[in-house]
Amino acid sequence: MSLFVSGREIALDKDGFLVDLADWNEAAAQALACREELELKAEHWEILWLLREFYAEFQLSPATRPLIKYTALKLGPEKGNSLHLNRLFKGTPAKLAAKLAGLPKPNNCL
To answer: Which residues act catalytically here (predicted)?
Structure first.
């Protein structure tokens, strides 16, 4: 599988995640979101950048509970809760947000 972004072919794994994390940029995120029929808005970007910060700090993609806790810690409880994150990312916040942020699939996601 692959994705064409700005005239470049970007390799994806069988689940649609980037093969090479260095291929990520905002245009790639937009293209991945389009494949998921999701329009990225400011509140999505806030979580995507936060996830990339989490990955830079811990070298892993968080599962749902750590994602909620980290979001609450950094952005407050009104954004760091399952209702908010599920609404933004179609009920699969850890998996879909990691994909759109260009990160590996969280270990506990099927």
So the answer is: 109
Long-range Cβ pairs for the range 23-32 (8 Å, 24+)? 23/102, 24/101, 24/102, 28/3, 28/102, 29/100, 29/101, 29/102, 31/3, 31/4, 31/5, 32/3, 32/99, 32/100, 32/102
On whether the 2-36 domain is CATH 3.40.50, my answer is no
- pLDDT tens, 49-99? 999 999 999 999 999 999 999 999 999 999 999 999 999 999 889 999 999
Query: Is 109 among the residues known to form the active site?
Result: yes
Specify the domain boundaries for CATH 1.10.10 within the chain. Answer: 42-101
Range 42-101 has CATH code 1.10.10: yes
Residue of 17, 76, 109, 110 marked catalytic: 109
